[in-house]
């Protein structure tokens, strides 16, 4: 577990150092730059929350935060893939992402179809499927918390191991770094280690 926590931490260090390099190059009028930086910052916060919950023995409860981290990474990868495609694709995707955050609603937060489409186009479909497959783990949780719950068969169910959640979190942070590196080549050295 500690090795994975260090890997997530390393991703944050690489991201911070890279942002120090690209900071002067950022175009405040660029929707692409704004969305990548905004979402990268959000990814750091989400990764911190996943690590904190896993350290406290709440891997199952970290899953909604992991789901949002996966969504963030997929959005960034999808945006970067649009940049690689050339033309106006990157700018159009950045504008779509900005609109999604203007008036968010819980009911629109996590559509699976959107995540899978962006994940496929951004190159992290397997990661997205892996995170989506953990929904049942979140719903069922770890049922050994109440006195006398042991009388029921379902209460003997073990919760998800933190390692599983942290592996997904580290992978998502790797995709965040790759999206940043694609936009600003050479600015995030070490990203390939994550």
Characterization of this structure:
- The protein has 194 residues and is mainly alpha-helical.
- The chain has one domain (2-193).
- Helices cover 69% and strands 0% of the residues.
- The chain is built from 9 helices and no strands.
- α3 runs antiparallel to α4.
- The longest helix is centred in the first third of the chain and has 25 residues, at 31-55.
- It is globular.
- It starts with a helix and ends in an 11-residue tail after the last helix.
Biggest β-sheet strands, sense, barrel = none
- Tell me the overall shape: globular
Q: Which oligomerization state do the chains in this entry correspond to?
A: single chain
Number of E strands: 0
Q: Could you tell me how far the N terminus lies from the C terminus, measured between alpha carbons in angstroms?
A: 15 Å
The total domain count is 1
Instruction: Spell out the helices and strands N to C.
Output: HHHHHHHHH
Helix content: 55-70%
The low-confidence runs, each spanning 5 or more residues with pLDDT under 50, are none
Radius of gyration based on Cα positions: 18 Å
What count of helical segments does DSSP give? 9
Strand residue percentage: under 5%
* Average pLDDT: 92
What class do helices, strands and sheet pairing give?
mainly alpha
Please give a quick description of this structure.
Helix content is 69%, strand content 0%.
Task: Show the helix and strand layout.
Elements lengths: L1 H21 L8 H25 L7 H23 L3 H14 L3 H4 L2 H11 L2 H8 L2 H6 L21 H22 L11
Helix pairs in contact: 1-2, 1-9, 2-3, 2-4, 2-9, 3-4, 3-6, 3-7, 3-9, 6-7
């Amino acid at each position: 577990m500690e090795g994975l926590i260090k890997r997530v931490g390393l991703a944050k260090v690489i991201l911070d150092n890279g942002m120090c390099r690209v900071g002067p190059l950022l175009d405040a009028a660029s929707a692409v730059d704004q969305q990548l930086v905004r979402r990268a910052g959000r990814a750091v916060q989400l990764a911190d929350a996943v690590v904190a919950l896993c350290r406290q023995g709440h891997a199952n409860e970290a899953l909604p935060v992991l789901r949002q981290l996966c969504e963030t990474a997929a959005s960034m990868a999808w945006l970067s893939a649009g940049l690689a495609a050339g033309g106006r694709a990157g700018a159009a995707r950045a504008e779509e992402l900005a609109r999604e955050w203007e008036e968010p609603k819980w009911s629109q937060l996590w559509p699976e179809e959107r995540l899978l489409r962006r994940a496929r186009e951004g190159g992290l479909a397997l990661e997205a499927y892996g995170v989506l497959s953990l929904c049942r783990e979140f719903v069922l949780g770890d049922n050994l918390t109440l006195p006398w719950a042991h009388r029921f068969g379902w209460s003997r169910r073990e919760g998800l191991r933190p390692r599983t959640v942290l592996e997904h979190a580290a992978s998502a942070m790797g995709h965040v770094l790759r999206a940043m590196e694609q936009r600003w080549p050479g600015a995030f050295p070490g990203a390939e280690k994550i």
